[in-house]
Design goal:
The chain has 13 helices and eleven strands. The protein is of the alpha/beta class and 327 residues long. The two termini are 34 Å apart. The strands form two sheets. It has a six-stranded mixed β-sheet with strand order 2-1-3-10-4-11, with helices on both faces. Strands 7-6-8-5-9 form a five-stranded mixed β-sheet.
């Protein structure tokens, strides 16, 4: 059953928390197993990232950690479930960008307000996207791609995993910053996007490096640029888009994954979790596991994550404004 947590219900939960014993202020926290809510199915990228961190985190906390997979609505259901189970003080979660930055714009009422109802803990990892074309494309580099797009506006197409997805919004940001116009072709899965690029049905797509890399190595796809500010460790030879082919020096678009908690969780618990997670992310074995999956370990303070959410909400909100204005 899909749970829609209304703003009123959230307020009730918050009020109830004040009436409960000070579980979250207990210096011995956690006093029972910690439940980590993940808004995607077991075996998905967000699930695997959470498990890489929670295994050593459980050892540090001295309590088991139970991964609660609650897929649906692009990760929104996982956050709703975390909030609905917050009253024992042992429910936290992980989230990708969307539910905390663009979901309210794309879906309407998600049942929670990221600023009022969520306490950021720590960024886990980031992943850029790559602009990929067919291995048989006559376009060899980013400059050639932009030149081709400018020569015939709307002639080049790009695929994404749906309206409002990270790949779609990144392409729209690229359109805006490069001064070009491409045709959007939405699909439901990256496998369909890659197959359509290699088959010549569409011209390009933004996707995770790990999704494109096997096809590049097989000679069926080319990567023209990466959206991170610096070259990405998994594909160090792919040039950054920023500062190339007329794109601005600060062009940047990344996927990310982060630990979060209900807003009323005690600040000392948030601080401890942030410290433990940052120390885990310093482990080279953990860093390599993340990189093997196409993610770069991040970390930082809870305030850093709060600012990242605010910055990305503003940036993607402006992109959505432009897309809606053009429709």
């Amino acid at each position: 059953m899909t749970l829609h947590l209304t703003r009123r219900a959230t307020l009730i939960l918050g009020a109830a928390a004040f009436a409960l014993p000070a579980f979250a202020q207990d210096a011995d926290w956690p006093t029972e197993p910690v439940h980590v809510y993940v808004g995607f199915p077991a075996g998905s990228s967000p699930d695997l990232l959470a498990r890489i961190i929670t295994e050593p985190l459980a050892e540090r906390l001295g309590q088991p950690i139970v991964i609660e997979n609650k897929p649906g609505a692009g990760g929104v259901i996982g956050i709703q479930q975390m909030l609905a189970n917050a009253d024992d003080g042992h429910a936290i979660g992980t989230s990708i960008n969307g539910p905390l930055t663009t979901a309210a714009r794309m879906m309407g009422d998600t049942g929670f307000d990221p600023q009022a109802d969520i306490a950021p803990i720590a960024l886990i990892a980031t992943s850029p996207l790559v602009l990929a074309v067919s291995g048989e494309s006559e376009i060899e580099d980013l400059a050639g791609f932009v030149e081709t797009a400018k020569a015939e506006p709307g002639a080049l197409s790009f695929g994404s995993v749906g309206q409002g997805s990270g790949a779609h919004l990144t392409a729209e940001l690229f359109n805006s910053e490069a001064g070009i116009e491409m045709l959007h072709v939405p699909f439901t899965a990256y496998a369909e996007v890659t197959t359509s690029i290699m088959g010549g049905e569409i011209d390009s797509g933004f996707m995770a490096p790990s999704a494109a890399l096997p096809h590049v190595e097989a000679g069926n796809m080319k990567m023209l640029g990466v959206t991170s500010a610096e070259p990405f460790g998994q594909i160090p030879d792919v040039p950054v888009i920023a500062g190339n082919a007329g794109l601005p020096d600060d062009f940047k678009a990344e996927l990310w994954n982060a630990f979060i908690a209900p807003a009323d969780m005690d600040a000392a618990v948030i601080e401890r979790l942030n410290t433990e997670i940052n120390e885990i992310l310093q482990d080279e074995t953990v860093q390599q596991k993340l990189l093997d999956m196409g993610w770069q370990a991040a970390g930082g303070s809870a305030d850093d994550l709060t600012q990242r959410i605010a910055d990305d909400t503003g940036m993607w909100g402006a992109v959505i404004d432009k897309v809606e204005a053009a429709e």
